[in-house]
Amino acid sequence: MKVQYDKEADAAYIYVKSGIGKGEVKRTISMNENIVLDFDADDKLIGIEILSASRVVPKGAIGSLQSCT
Predict the structure, then answer these.
(1) What proportions of the chain, in percent to the nearest 5, are helix, strand and coil?
(2) Hey, where are the domains in the chain?
(3) Which ranges of the chain have pLDDT less than 70?
(4) Which residue(s) pair with 29 in the sheet?
(5) Most exposed of 22, 57, 59, 62 (fewest Cβ within 10 Å)?
């Protein structure tokens, strides 16, 4: 599992499946205004997006996430 944080978008993405390919996400479910779940064609969870991550993720945890640019 890999977690990346995009500071500009203030979003974190948790890769449940390593190496999600382009177009592999077939279904997306919004759990609330901050949490989005991505599923593949077999309806398996492959990723979790956290929007407004600096407000949702505990303080101090953001700095430990791998930044993406």
Answers:
(1) 10, 40, 50
(2) 2-58
(3) 63-69
(4) 37
(5) 22
